[in-house]
Amino acid sequence: MQITCICTAESNLVYRMVSITRTEIEIVTGFLEWGKTTLINNIIKKEFKDTEDKIVILTGEEGIEEIDTLSNENIIVREIENENLNYKYFKNIQREFSPSYIFIEYNGMWNIEDVLNIKFKSEFNVDKIIGTVCPDTFTMYTNNMYEIIGGQLENCDMVYINNYNNMEEETLKSVSSSIRVLNKKCRIIDDEEDKDDYFKDVLGGKDLAGTDKFISIVLGCILFWIVILYLTLLADNGYKDIGKVERFTTIFLSILIESMPFILIGSVISSVMQFFIPDEKMVKLFNKKGASGYFFACILGMAVPICDCGMMIITRRLIRKGVSVPKAVTFLLAAPAVNPIVMLSTYYAFPERPGIVVCRIFFAMLIAVITGVILNALIKDEKVVLNDMTINSCNGYGIQKINYKGTLGKIESVFKHTADEFFYSAKYIIFGAVVSSILQIVVSRSAFVGVKSNLFVQLLIMMGLSFFMSVCANSNAFIGRGFTSVFSIVPVLCFIVMGPMVDIKNLFMMSGTFKESFILRLVLIILAVSFVAFGWFLIWI
């Protein structure tokens, strides 16, 4: 026992020595005149006013303001060049000054990967990356130098918006939304109280993103077990409608099990498109003049063998690449129907009616093209995506720290980007699955038995069911076949075609990319075009 105690004491001593000698590196990034120096001076003034810790500030560019060294004699300022961003340089700084902190005032024209790719040893810790943004020039500079500025902001733990007190609320909201598209995990600071509190947390070594994520997981687990306990008590007390609870669970899980693999595949394809397919080539294929661009948008789904669950992710990537919204929406609507797997599943669902496969493809492409043409006439130059940033792309690897360069760096970026895309999209599927499951329990199929006489009423009902049931394109043909005993074949065909275009889960997915006003118009256009198309088909046959 005594030996153990001695070993433990020695270990603690070694640990304390390592902790004492380790230098924390804080990176402050942003474009020229976006307030990096001012921010560093504020941090030093508020958090290090009376400290005896040595602080080295490495400035990568000369701005209007200078670092304040008069208020604290322990502050050392040195200029740094891009070629000095290596481990040897930082080791020499540590040997010469033994600083507790190194602040890097990062040059706005340097790629953030230059410092993130440095393989620091245990005596250094890259603690936090703090970004600064000036709203007056943010959109202009970011659109023109996206790879550099976007890469820096994507890696930030915090983004500080300068001059927020003098900004209009709409401008502040727009800038914050653009930053959020680039970086979904960072803390955006736009008021004085938040800034002061956050600086303390940053320099205290707290991993706020990790803490928030941990809290979310814990709360999610607690909520899950509360629901399980509640359902168990209901069952034990002879709750009469426990069957509805079981049915809800079955429907909810079936939607998730069906959709999640395709969400993952869609995320992978989206990431591969991001890092391996040049923007110019993608835009050139889609944005052809006349009908050829819409035709290409329709048939591209043949090369993407996933159902509608993953199509919104790919559509979002196409828009970021620069593809026009009408062409991207045409792809979104048509792709699930021309998917080879969907065609095969439709054939197996209706082996005695192979014409259903052809009809499904025809009507899906017809509705998609007409909807795209109408959107092209309606929106013109209107911004219907959530903000300006969604139409940009990032060909660099500035999502997280990348350990490799060249092809290996792209592959590593694909994996990390896939994870971000997957978790971003999965939450919408979960919300949609919950709503769809509840509605399927509340509304029974038996309620529609008495509508056989009116085909147009059947059509409206099947359009409604396709929206609420949220069945994946790969399997909705089998669900549709089950309705043939109650409805005629044209309304059933409408159900099969409409489901992948507009249903609850896809609506939630769209809300992560498009503005609500645009989604409403899009849904109304799809419903109107579909009703006219299938109504004409009813009359014709």
UniProtKB/TrEMBL annotation:
One of its GO terms (cellular component) is plasma membrane. Keywords: Cell membrane, Membrane, Transmembrane, Transmembrane helix. InterPro entries: CobW/HypB/UreG_nucleotide-bd, DUF318, P-loop_NTPase, UPF0718. Residues 26-189 form the CobW/HypB/UreG nucleotide-binding domain. It is a multi-pass membrane protein. It is found in: Cell membrane. Its main location: membrane. The chain crosses the membrane at residues 214-236, 248-273, 293-316, 328-349, 355-379, 422-443, 455-473, 478-498, 518-539. Belongs to the UPF0718 family. This is CobW/HypB/UreG nucleotide-binding domain-containing protein. The lineage of its organism: Bacteria, Bacillati, Bacillota, Clostridia, Eubacteriales.
